[in-house]
Amino acid sequence: MTQNYQQLVKLIENAMNSVTFEQAVMEAKYETPQSFIFHSLSVATLAYDICEAIKETSPDSLKRLSELYKGITPEELCFYGGFLHDWNKLKSLQIDKSDEEEKLKIAKEETMKIAKELLKYIKEDERLIDDIVNTFASYAEGSLNDRSYMPAWVAIKLADMLMISNIQSIKDIPYFMESESYENAIKTLNSYKLKLDYISSSFRLFTLIASRNIIDDLIEKGYRPLMSYKDGVVILRPEDKPFLKLSDIYRRLREEVSFGGSIDNKNDLIDDRFEKIKRCLNRDIINEINNNKEKAIQYDLNAILLTRICKPFEDVVGSLDNSIKLEVAKKVINELQPIGVIMYFIHRFSSKDEDYIAKKLGFSSKPTSRQYILKIDDTNSWLKKILMALQERYSSNSEDLTLKYYTKYSFSGDIKDDLTWNNDTPKDYCTVCGLPIYSTPTRFVQYAEEIRGKAEIWIPREKALDYIDTTIKLWSACPICIYEARQMRDIITPPYLIISFYPGIPISLLDVLDFNKPEPETSRIDVNEKFYNVFKMFGGDLTTTPSHRKLMVGYLGSKIIISIVSLGLSKQSKETRITKTSLNKMLHYAPFLSIIFLIAPVRISSEIYDVPLYGSNVISVSSNYSYSFLKPENISNDSRKPGGNLKVIYQLLAYSAKYEALTNVTGKMDLDNMLNKLVQEWDLYASVDPALGVLSLGLGLGTPISFNEGSFFWNISRRAWIILDAMGKVSGMGDSLKDNIFSLAFVLKEVVGEVPSKYAVIGFIRDGVDTFFRTSFALENKDDRVELATNAALGSLENKYSLDQKNINKAYYALKSIFETLYDIEKKSDRGLAMSVANTITNWIYIALSIVKPEGEKN
Q: How many whole angstroms separate alpha carbon 506 and alpha carbon 226?
């Protein structure tokens, strides 16, 4: 694994600085949502890592490359060659060109510019630039002509292989390794004393959390984790290193369940469980009984040991390591009131083995009478017997057979299975996940207690029950589900933004990507801006210390989980399912996070197992709620035409701009209502054309418009550029409307004084709109209706203001185009929707005037 993250981060930053935002977001594949920047940086990073591994196991093989290219390392050559290997994809930016050769010529020119940008940080060398573009970059697809370049050819070719979009599972890797295209590269890699292995795993939250420790284990043992896929990881293994053992993974997973990932967490776990029992035994009634034992007879047992807070000891300690259970018991015995402790362990020890402590104290079963309390003269003697009983029960850290079963049947691949299994009969099955339970089952109520209703509890095997209170006592939960419930309660609180990478992502690239909480004032993005500047503007960061990040990274699942709490949208979420309210709020962050993680698909969900859905090369933001404007197919009708990613990003940025405007002028309840109105109107408008959705404001007909400082329209006007830019980007209709809105705004700018009220300025277009819809039943001919409405609006404008012929012509063609668009909308949908859109267009003409003619400006 790459250890010199400082060097890698510098290379990645240079690469981001070499391409424009428009180039970066361009689609790189037809089958999966890989942007140009993601695919190119992934191949570059993998090539860098493979070359570095070759340097460690076979340093002599790189000597010739070092001699040929002074001042630049072989790893850097591999990185730049990998980054530029798909330079021909840049031809698709020139979509107005029909000649394929001309497209490639332009793409080559763009690539040479990028190469110069990349290498200006090292040295200006025309030969080096030419060689990287024409030699190193060709190795992903081409053959080798000079054996001096063999290590670079192997690194770049295999890096590109690992990013093939046809890879649906990590188990597909051996197929590609054995294919004719890559078998020679694999053989050469083996000659450098390196093996390409893979470890497959089943995904669940537990594995996601433990994945960092598993990766660290691999590094410590001398392996180099290369690539994370949705179901495992590809590693480079030096041939003198044996296969990883399954027992090593089991040990790491057990540490996670028993110690929260590290033995260093032991004291925190002990204190946490002790405090739960202390809440039960540190009450006035317990103190009263401790001072006067006869009170124990007078009070009802359930009043003394309240069921609500006095949970059975074995439910409280759950799946913790036996040594921790014993330490919790010792702390309870040493620090709490002795009579209360004795009663607690006798009556509230375990629901599954409720008589255990009582029998160890000489009772035949748990006593129904509390007369025994009166006979307690020496509390220390009773407490000593209880401790001895617990030491016997928790005497050894025996194997967790449930976890062992999970490890054995969830991990496979190039791994040594050294875990023995006797095919024991399970004691129960987990009600939550269905896993067979071989260890002592934990009651399901403990799972419910841990999760506290803060994430979805889905039990597919159970029908509606008449006697659920009785039946629930029979249900069990496995130790893994108990652990996951605790994490979802305290650490990974749903709902989530789930970022996935297809077909996977290099481990090193996953390690260096980071973000600061995105809090940008959405502003206009110039598509010609360098991608790195946009990346930084929206909170992106490159780190050399991945362990310090607050991200929840699934190294064995190719994804990143970001909780709603970590974004500051909710202090504590109690939602069991994603709601429209939380979805609408989290959508605000979707474009920023997609950009930060190299134009990645995003899924908003309360279910940790959800992954972003995709059916084309265009990225998407998906959720359980099916907003039509989130579907990439409604944005890019032809996935083979470029620009789909750009349309998705711009559309989401427009949503974020409106979100910011609303948050600045509304309270919490009003914000939820206004966001709901916004997405409802957006969805309705987008059913005709995506650009109309971008134009929507969600305020309805007749909404008063005010540009007083702090008002909604004042806030919108500050963000109008990004919204109108987005409208122009997402469709031809949007591009036309944008031009027409600005044409009318500039005409008005020249003829009005200070910007007066909305109705004083744009009453002319209302006259045209009224004429247009009044004639909808009388005139069937499109040209007649459009011409009549255009003349009505233009005549009204000329009556108010003095226009020269140039502005008359400009206004005429803009108005005519707008009414033609309204006619098409009416035919595609209905008259009512066309009227709503007309009102929205009218508002936007006034907003456009406010930004081309700032307040107070006179002619």
A: 6
Residue 530: pLDDT over 70: yes
Question: Greater confidence, 453 or 82?
Answer: 82
DSSP-derived 3-state class of residue 845: helix
- In the beta sheet, which residues pair with residue 506? 227
Beta strands in 282-433 (DSSP E): 411-413, 415-416, 428-429
The pLDDT of residue 457: 47
Give the pairing of strands 436-437 and 428-429: antiparallel
Q: Is the dihedral of CA 849, 851, 853, 855 positive or negative?
A: positive
What is the DSSP-derived secondary structure letter of residue 413?
E
What does each C-alpha distance from 98 to 92, 93, 94, 102, 396 come to in angstroms?
10, 12, 9, 8, 75
What residues does 201 pair with on adjacent strands? Answer: 411
Structure tokens, 211: 């994945």
Please provide the size of the chain in residues: 859
Separation CA 527–CA 132 (nearest Å): 26
Q: Answer yes or no: is pLDDT of 51 > 90.
A: yes
pLDDT band at 455 (very low <50, low <70, confident <90, very high): very low
Nearest by Cα to 696 from 734, 670, 667, 749: 734
Angle at 183 between CA 180 and CA 188, to 5 degrees: 145
Quote the pLDDT of residue 524.
Answer: 66
Give the H/E segment covering residue 51: helix 36-57
Q: What integer is the mean pLDDT of 707-719?
A: 76
Written as one string, the DSSP assignment of 499-558 is EE-SSEEEHHHHHHEEEPPP-----PPPTTSBHHHHHHHTTEEE-S-GGG---EEETTTT
Report the pLDDT value the prediction gives residue 383, as an integer from 0 to 100: 92
Token pair for residue 478? Answer: 């496995």
